[in-house]
# Entry
Amino acid sequence: MTIEERAFSTLETAAGALAQDLASALRAAVSERGKALVAVSGGRTPRHVFDCLRQLDVDWPRVTVTLTDERWVPADHPDSNEGLVRSFLLRGPAAAATFIPLYGGEVSPDAGHPACKARLAALARPFDAVYLGLGGDGHFASLFPGDPALDVRDRVCVAVPGTETRQPRMTLTASAVLDARKVFLMFSGADKQAVYAEARRIGPYRDIPVRLVLGQERTPVSVFKAP
# Structure
């Protein structure tokens, strides 16, 4: 599968272009199937995309939004991806979209996994679009180098235990992400440009997880690179 790469001079222009492509994917899904399903990333960069996307002409009442991953914290926590999406995307006309959370209030991701799995199983997958970010260690969603979750293929989501440096999380599995009709990957910064370049080379995905996305030949991938 050919990977489409686009480089931009600023983060803002990259975000605007990605928002336009996401909106086109959602409009096409609504036109063809009467509804659209998208999974989006959290972090700093997506808020620029969300600011643009929520202003575009999309039949938002027919759109369902969920997350690629979530730290196991409530929506009002500053680290919550759900809180980010509600603050920057689900505003104005886009507030009419349906949002499906990953976090359910249970004491841990393991405890919350059955209910989260059920919520996601009720969706009419595959995702029409999945918007991913890229971590400085090559992770996507919450699939980190060397983590056993990388090899989970028999379910839609998996609990990721916390460590000394990161909170416990719930993430879509690689198989759920790559079952999408289209994947969009956006990142910025020289460090991530270097990680991406290394990920394009042949090597083990357990070292650089995004190789699972870039090395497969089933799902189209559009890459948006910003300084």
Remarks:
- DSSP finds seven helices and ten strands in the chain.
- The longest helix spans residues 11-33.
